[in-house]
Specification:
The chain is an alpha/beta fold. It contains eleven helices and eleven strands. The strands form two sheets. The protein has a six-stranded mixed beta sheet with strand order 2-1-3-10-4-11, sandwiched between helices. It has a five-stranded mixed beta sheet with strand order 7-6-8-5-9, with helices on both faces. It is globular.
């Protein structure tokens, strides 16, 4: 049978061509997190993975790749194959780094595939116990009278709270000086101890200290009040027509097929909206969302460009 060998060769060739797709379908889905275990992004990703496992067709693995404020993880996913086996759970702050960090040599709008926004969170302003102000308007008046009171702490230079506070200062017509700390904990301690007057950080990071009376929260940046600081008014409620929410999202490598993106989006959004997962997220101080890839891509572009203008105006550049 002279045609037996060609048929066998054809079958082998077809099997070899199909093999990468089969392997990709059976390989674990890796959710890469750019921060260490225990960080909010890590805890949220693990809650999300648990919610996805019930309806997903392959194992899900959460992999921590800390370094550079999420930069190491972002670069890893950017270079991954676009087969749906490697995704990045990222805070918006990491995606802003190309505006100010030389090592962030990527374009977030073209070097990643948007899949969905996962959740939103806000920024809170809090005063130390010895600052003679009860409201945000009191504090603005105090800084105008005593400019030295305009110093503020954040967890890091180049962070979203850093830039948002400068944005607010410009809007309010006051001068504020950024004092960066190496993490939220030392920034909180410095504010409580009177080293700085104001702390800018996420609401979830300070809710316990506010409840204990160690810090006095005077504003949140979101459109609505924070679920973890429900008694604290928004900026808009206090007459400052400005807001600055941030988010966590899931993105993939560039070049992912639209059908694959839609399947992943459906699985992730279903997990986000599951009551058990949504409750766990709210307990972390974030608000679960879940969007279409198209809606998230539009939001991503608008936010990246808006915050880019703020960062450029600040003149901030990270140390090389």
């Amino acid at each position: 049978m002279a045609f037996a060998r060609p048929l066998a060769s054809l079958a082998a060739a077809l099997f070899a061509a199909a093999l990468p797709a089969v392997v990709a379908a059976q390989a674990p889905l890796k959710l890469i997190v750019g921060f260490p275990p225990g960080a909010t992004s890590d805890t949220m990703t693990r809650a999300l993975a648990e919610g996805m496992r019930a309806g997903f067709d392959r194992p899900i693995v959460v992999e921590n790749r800390p370094g550079g404020g999420g930069l190491a993880a972002a670069k890893l996913v950017k270079a991954a194959p676009p087969d749906g086996t490697t995704l990045l759970m990222t805070p918006f702050g990491t995606m802003l780094q190309p505006h100010s960090v030389k090592a962030a040599d990527f374009n977030p709008l073209t070097d990643f595939t948007p899949i969905t926004q996962i959740s939103t969170f806000d920024i809170a302003f809090a005063l130390g116990p010895n600052v003679p102000a009860s409201t945000l308007r009191d504090y603005v008046a105090l800084v105008k009278k005593e400019p030295r009171r305009g110093d503020f702490a954040s967890a890091a230079a180049g962070s979203l709270p850093h830039f948002f506070t400068l944005m607010f200062a410009k809007y309010a017509g006051i001068e504020m000086t950024h004092i960066p700390y190496k993490g939220t904990a030392p920034a909180v301690t410095a504010t409580i101890g009177g080293e700085v007057n104001l702390l800018s950080t996420t609401s979830a990071d300070i809710s316990n200290q506010v409840k204990a009376g160690k810090l006095r929260a005077i504003a949140v940046s979101s459109a609505r009040r924070s679920p973890v600081l429900p008694d604290v008014p928004t900026l808009r409620e206090q007459g400052y027509n400005i807001e600055g929410g941030a988010w966590y999202a899931m993105v993939g490598p560039p070049g992912m097929a639209p059908d694959l993106v839609r399947r992943l989006n459906a699985a992730i959004v279903a997990a986000i909206k599951a009551p058990a997962t949504a409750e766990r997220m709210r307990n972390m101080g974030v608000e679960p969302t879940g969007t279409t890839p198209e809606a998230f891509a539009a939001l991503f572009k608008a936010d990246y460009e808006r915050w880019g203008a703020v960062i450029k105006a600040s003149g901030f550049k990270a140390d090389d």
